[in-house]
Every structure is written in structure tokens, then in C-alpha cells.
Amino acid sequence: MGKVAINIATGSIQKEEIIVGIDLGTTNSLIAIVRGDTHEPIALKEIDGLTLVPSIVHFDEYGNVTVGNPAKELLVTQPERTIYSVKRLMGKSYNDVSHDAGFFAYNIIDDNTDALVKIQVGQKFYSPIELSSYILKELKKRAEHILKTTISKAVITVPAYFNDAQRQATRDAGRLAGLDVLRIINEPTAASLAYGLGAKKGEEKTIAVYDLGGGTFDISILTISNGIFEVLSTHGDTYLGGDDMDNLLVRYWQEDGGEGSSDLGFGSSLDKSLMQQLRVTAEKAKKHLSTNDVFEGEINGKQVHITKQEFNDLVQPLIDRTITACTSALKDAGLTTAQIDAVVMVGGSTRVPLVKESVRKFFGRDVHDELNPDEVVALGAAVQADILAGNNTEMLLLDVTPL
Fold it and tell me: Would you say 246 and 222 are in contact if contact means Cβ atoms under 8 Å apart?
């Protein structure tokens, strides 16, 4: 990989400057390019082998900024200085978010209800645009480090339901990070592109994109006709995702804890680090149960375990809520499941076997899950970037939203 990356960077393969595709996510963000030699989209990895950068920003008392995994580690110890899920605040006023200010451990300021929301850290105030620009800066820095070249142009994805204010805020964040944002495209459109859907001239397709991330869920129904992507309907829940699965498991262990739960000491009032241990173990269990029937672990010297069946029973109600949203999205689009030509799975939480099974059953067809569901949106953004760079003349794309 290393050799190729430098090779791309020296421009011996790539004639045009590189335009990157960026998935600016609620939980994780990442950056992708189309390789000049193979014409395949790839997510850029650091030496650590990770493509995902947690969308978390930490400020120390001197105002120094840390982004990604190192910031994530400070969530427990310095919650009031560590900002997560900033995407939820993009383009929003305090009025828009006041009802769920409790979700955020950090301080959201209510100064002027109609103005865009601000976040207080210590004595300083930051807008969601500034905070998002730090995440984009980090991605840009990573890409430049890997590709050994400057990056100045990008395609950035947003949820299909983002309105004009939210899209503009995303553009502004890009500009602040030193990026010329050539296009803002819908996440479901990007995911479809990554699978090459609608790539052939004259092709007409109706696609359902099921996107279950760490903190949000949405289902979008789109049609592609002659390179025009049109989102017919979109539904979902901005507070439903993999984190909720983890939380259900944490609660299960707290209340039940297997044999003799009283002596587990997982009362309702847990200290932060024990709670964090529980959460981390829950996430580990969830992943383990994708390929195994039983999980056994230890927290604070206490044994915890759960079977795949018990886990499925726990998360079934969450998955049912996503299926209800699928029904609504189809109804809004005026379609039946029989009229859907392809179903695309997006988001890390779609790795849970019960999720795949439920979606397969609902649509009555196999789903597209061959590509890494964490990367598929960024890969599609890179395909769009490649088209804009003039390297891919097969496809012409337009993205139309219902908003």
C-alpha cells in the first residue's frame, strides 16, 4: 500500500489534482479517493490501519485541539471539554435543539433563540461549523500525509433530509478547513454510486438505502434515471443506532447480570469509568455475536455473558422501529417492496446479522452488503469526485432532493 500511495502522490499516475470524497458522519468520519492506477475507490488508511476518524473534538484548557481517537479517550475523563455528535447541531438554532440538550454532556448556549447554536468550552464559544471544520482539517491532514500531496478540493456527503441551512453549514465548515467543496451530495446517492448502481447509460433503477449508524438511522428511497438521482422519500430516527444497542446491553447486565445480580455491584449509580467499561464490553459483545453464539467477558472481576438469542431479543424492538420507518418511506414514495430493484446497506450497525435478516425479509430480496458498510458513503463520494475531476466520463450525475 505504502508504495502505491507515494506513487499516486508523485503524479506519475494521477495527472489531475486529487479531489477527495469525505463522509462527515455523526459518529465517525472518513476520506476516500479513486486510485489513479486501478480506478477503484479506496478509503485512506493511516499506518494504524484505521480508516475511521471518530467525529470527536477535544479542547484542552489552552484551547489546543485534538480530533479523533485521542479525543475519544478523553470523553470519560473530560466530558465537558469533549464534543461529539456535532453533526446533530449543524444549521440548527437553540430552539431546534433545546428539547434534547440533555443528550449532550457539553454546554449548549441559549443566548439568542433564533441564531445558530453555540457550544461553550471553558471560556470559549464555538459554532458547529467551526467544530466540524476541525474534523475536516484532521481528515485533510491525514490524506495529505498518506498521499504526500496537498488536498484542496472535496465532495462532502450529507443526509438526504438535511435542509438548506444544514447543507450550507457543511459547505462553510469545508471552507473553514481550507477545502473548496465542489459538491454536497446525499449519503444514499453516494452509497448507490459506490455499488455502481445507475452507472450505465439509460439505466433506470429504484433503490432503497438502509443506513444504520452509531447514533442515527435513515431509510431513503431513490430513483436513478439517465444519471439523475432523485430522492423520493426519506424517513428515520436521528436518535437510533448502534449506541442504543450497546446501551440496552449495558442495562441488561446492570439489571440482570446473570446469576445473583445483586452482587455484581452494577447498581444504577455507576462511577464513570465502570460505566465506560460496561459500554466498551457491550460493544465488544455485539461485535462478537455477529459471528458467535455466546459472549463471555469480565468487568471489574465480575463475569458477564449473553447469548446471540438473548441479544437478538434485546435489540428486536430497535430493529422493528427501523422497519416501520421503511414502511413509511415506501408509502411516501407510493411504491411497494416489489418495485424496489436494489437494497443497499450502509453504516456499521448493519453488520448485526438480525438487522440484515430483517431488512432482507422486509424487502423480499438479497441486500448489497459486499462493501464495507462504514466506508461505502465515502467511497461513493470519491466516485463522484472522480467524475468531477474528469477522470470518469462514463457517468454524468445530478442529485435531486425532495427538500
Answer: no
* pLDDT confidence bin for 382, thresholds 50/70/90: very high
Which of 72, 87, 118, 140 is catalytic? The answer is 87
Assign 327 a pLDDT band (cuts: 50, 70, 90). Answer: very high
CA dihedral sign of residues 384, 390, 393, 399: positive
211 is a catalytic site residue: yes
Is it the case that residue 110 has pLDDT exceeding 80? no
Give the CA dihedral 393, 224, 167, 140, nearest 10 degrees: -40
Q: Which of 138, 172, 211, 244 is catalytic?
A: 211
- E strands present in 258-301: 294-299
Quick one: pLDDT at residue 260? 41
Q: Are 16 and 130 in contact (CB under 8 A)?
A: no
Looking at per-residue confidence, does 276 or 319 come out higher? Answer: 319
Phi, psi of 298 (to 5 degrees): -135, 130
Which CATH architecture group holds 1-195+372-397? 2-Layer Sandwich (3.30)
61 catalytic, yes or no?
Answer: no
Q: What is the DSSP string of 42-96?
A: EE---TT----EESEEEE-TT--EEESHHHHTHHHH-GGGEEE-GGGGTT-BHHH
Residue of 172, 187, 244, 374 with catalytic role: 187
Tell me which DSSP letter residue 199 carries: -
C-alpha cell at 310: 438473548
**CATH 2.30.40.10 at 242-312, yes or no:** no
What gap in Å lies between CA 288 and CA 214, rounded to an integer?
Answer: 17
Residue 241 has pLDDT above 90, yes or no: yes
Give start and end residues of each alpha helix (H) in 297-393: 308-333, 353-363, 376-388
| Closest by CA position to 225, among listed 207, 208, 199, 202 | 202
- Quick one: pLDDT at residue 348? 94
Average pLDDT value for residue range 244-256: 89
* 203 classed as catalytic: no
What is the distance between the alpha carbons of residues 352 and 159, in angstroms, rounded to a whole number?
22
Spot the catalytic one: 23, 218, 243, 244: 23
What's the pTM value of the predicted model, to 2 decimals? 0.90
| In contact, 55 and 135? CB cutoff 8 Å | yes
Q: pLDDT at residue 16 above 80?
A: no
Taking the domains of the chain in order of start, what are their residue ranges? 1-195+372-397, 242-312
- Whether 205 is catalytic: no
